[in-house]
Amino acid sequence: MSYILGIETSCDETAAAVVQDGRIVLSNIVYSQIPIHRQFGGVVPEVASRKHVEVIRRVVETALAESEIQAHELAGIAVTQGPGLVGPLLVGLSFAKAYSYGLGLPLLGVHHLDGHICANYLAFPDLEPPFLALIVSGGHSHFYHVKDYGEYQLLGGTRDDALGEAFDKVARMLDLPYPGGPEVEKLALSGQDVYAFPMAMLEEDSLDFSFSGMKSAIRNHLHKHPATDLKDRADIAHSFQERAFDVVEQKIKRAIKQTGANTLVIAGGVAANQRLRDRLNHLPVDLRFPPLKYCTDNAAMIASSGYYMIQNGKHSPLTLNAKPNLSLHSCG
Ligand code: KG4
Ligand code: ZN
Fold this sequence. Notes:
The chain is an alpha/beta fold.
């Protein structure tokens, strides 16, 4: 049995978890800072760093206590190295380094997106690479061919605003609180599909995404026709969500055609969206969405990723530094 402690502090969640053999979650503690950042309309990095410092020890100790695993039984400490906000990342990294040094345990620097993909290993015991993965989060809309554990080929990615970022920005325009994704989803339920906001499909074979044109079109629309009543705002939220998911669905069809993939794994915060789940259900592919608690940021997914690093004979030096723009090929 191999137990990994995972630590995640890349944005506004302070999270720690203990996972057995990369798949079985023994504890999963997430301290969300959303109520703190909501008053500012978005994450304030310095405020996030300070809050992480304040609570990280308690979060880690609670994760260990709930797992009923003693620190000396751990096989390694996995921690998000990047991408993310540098201050918040450094808090988790410094804590993990001290813990790993103190206990004489391997340090495992994990890529946040690898973690999001591994979230699916927690939910689906039968899931094994190779498969096609789409990550839709606050910072990324990326297709990867997952060749093996920890082995990725980027097939297409975000050219400007990521999908979650577009949800957050449209939410702001509609005076909805942070984080915008779930708020837009909720408001869209009472709206109708009336606006043909422009969809950027890009070059014929491109698997890249661009949502900034759609976002600007909504901003221009609101300048010309301020949405004063709830019905107007709900129609905009609904139409934006449908057009954004039209793009996602068409790109997925393209990706399946190009790669011949049989299995598609969706990961990241936007994967929590029920409308997205319903829209993709009919696709002729073995479709996997993680349960909601593993879609948004958590440390169980980071522990799972760390387990597969150890399985691949990898670990990180204590000189490991936070990398806000880390790419998926250069982790650890
Ligand atoms: O994966 P995540 O928790 O953090 C990052 O790694 O970015 O994703 C957060 C993003 C935010 O942009 C948030 O608005 C979006 O995921 N999100 C959603 C939903 N829940 C979270 N977007 C659409 N619908 C949702 N239900
Ligand atoms: Zn994330």
